[in-house]
Amino acid sequence: MKTQRHLFLLLLTLFFTACQYEFPELPQENPAPGEANFSKTVAVGNSITAGFMDGALYNRGQENSFIHILSQQFQLAGGGDFHQPAINSENGFFSMGPNGPLGRLILANDPLTGQTLPAPIGAGDLPSAYTGDKSALNNFAVPGITLGQALSPLTSGPASADNPAYNALYARFASNPGQSSVINDAATALADGGTFFSFWLGANDLLGYAIGGASEPSILTSDEDFQIRFGAALNTLLAANESANGMVFNIPPIVELPYFNLVPYNPLPLSQAEADQVNQGYAAYNGGLIQAQTLGFISEEERIYRTISFEAGLNAFVMEDENLTDLSALGMPSIRQSRPEDKAVLLLSEALRPSENSPQRGIEFPVEDEYVLTPEEQAEINAKANTFNSIITGQVNTNTERLLLIDIKSFFEKVQNGAINSEGAVLSASIIPPSGGFSVDGIHPNARAHAFISNLCAEAINQKWNASIPKVNPNAYIGNDLPR
């Protein structure tokens, strides 16, 4: 059966209390490095450090990354130039369309529904090789990169199906494609007069697993491997120049990202007649649950939890759940309807759209595991993030004289609670302008949030090394564009 064409995206909005955190004013005159030295800063990291926003790497994102903003503030205190591997694309690359590459995401009004949702901006560009002076680069951040990939020369090539580590956004500026690694390139830059570095790696060792609905355990980095790889990467930079200091970032609260909080648990509109028809189709399944309870396979509580029932109005979707009791011996699948505590990934908003002559996902067949994080999976991801963050903190604590921990986890928790603002303008955990701090992809901060992060770093650096790095006005940086 078919339902009306409907938007399944509920944009997250937050209402803020009067308790808000304001960055304290620091002296803006006479900028000084204090006990630090910013004459040559080297950055290594993943997508946020690269300036990836709106599902793409593009000019405006690169130019407004927190490290680029911060490097400009460093220059006021004696810092040197900061060179990035410019992507030279106004729209970047989001995906391939029927007529070629599509660029970054924007907020667009759906003419059929009148609702607002992310959509490709139009024409984009495939990433091209960086033609500048690679030996002069300061930013070695690569979107999507894990710790293992940062350490491996395979990340720079060859580009083949037999090399899953390959990343085109690193290969385009690698010093020696097929031979060099991200960490070694950054270490080489540090050894060549580097005085300060930024290190933000490790989040993708968990994020990729979460984005896939926690459905592919093979891509989740083990605790042991994380500790070994994180230590190897960080210590390589420390050893490259023993006089250089650095700041190290931990992992933000992943399951609280808008990407996992934009699609409601009950997005399916049905009329009473449609609901009656669907319920008839699930009568045998619900009857099987009663039999399973009678036979002692499941409790009454689980039977109720698994029972599927639709009604007129907005409905929860039918979904797979591997945490349910396996009733395959009775010929019954592990399915139930979604609940408020489930978190659907943003891609489900499009996957739930009905199409002609095709069964309706979430009604006629269950939503697959890769589209939803169950409470059990959310708990697993949170526990893994806590373990990874403990490892990061431990590594920083082994060299507190040279290293500074930037607690980005606490920062994003404050954003989630509406506790971050500048001159009364809040930063919210949303993609909705003007206060939304996340770009349209629901994962990466936008330029305005990057300015806040830059200030967070400046404040921490000033406190640790008695510096006077000026902060910027976040309200001078663009958030997300208004819907088109």
What does this structure look like?
- It is a single chain.
- The chain has 484 residues and is α/β, with parallel strands linked by helices.
- It has 15 helices and 17 strands.
- It has two domains: 21-259 and 376-476, SGNH hydrolase (Rossmann fold, 3-Layer(aba) Sandwich); 268-374, no CATH class.
- It has helices at 47-50, 59-63, 66-75, 147-151, 168-171, 182-191, 204-211, 223-240, 272-281, 283-294, 300-306, 348-351, 375-397, 408-416, 447-465, and strands at 21-22, 41-45, 95-97, 100-102, 105-109, 116-120, 196-200, 245-249, 268-270, 313-315, 318-320, 335-337, 343-344, 372-373, 403-406, 420-422, 425-426.
- The longest helix is centred in the C-terminal third of the chain and has 23 residues, at 375-397.
- The protein is elongated.
- Mean pLDDT is 92; it is low at 1-27.
CATH fold node name of the largest domain: Rossmann fold
The portion of residues forming beta strands comes to 5-15%
Number of domains: 2
Give the rounded overall mean pLDDT.
92
Biggest beta-sheet profile: 4 strands, parallel
Query: What is the CATH class name of the largest domain?
Result: Alpha Beta
Q: Tell me which CATH architecture of the largest domain applies here.
A: 3-Layer(aba) Sandwich
Spans of at least 5 consecutive residues with low confidence: 1-27
What is the number of helical segments per DSSP (H or I, 4+ residues)? 15
Helix percentage range: 25-40%
Query: What gyration radius follows from the Cα positions, in whole Å?
Result: 24 Å
Per CATH, the superfamily of the largest domain is SGNH hydrolase
What structural class is derived from the secondary structure elements? alpha/beta
General form: elongated
The order of strands across the largest sheet is 2-7-8-15
**Number of E-type strands:** 17
The rounded distance between the terminal residues' Cα atoms is 32 Å
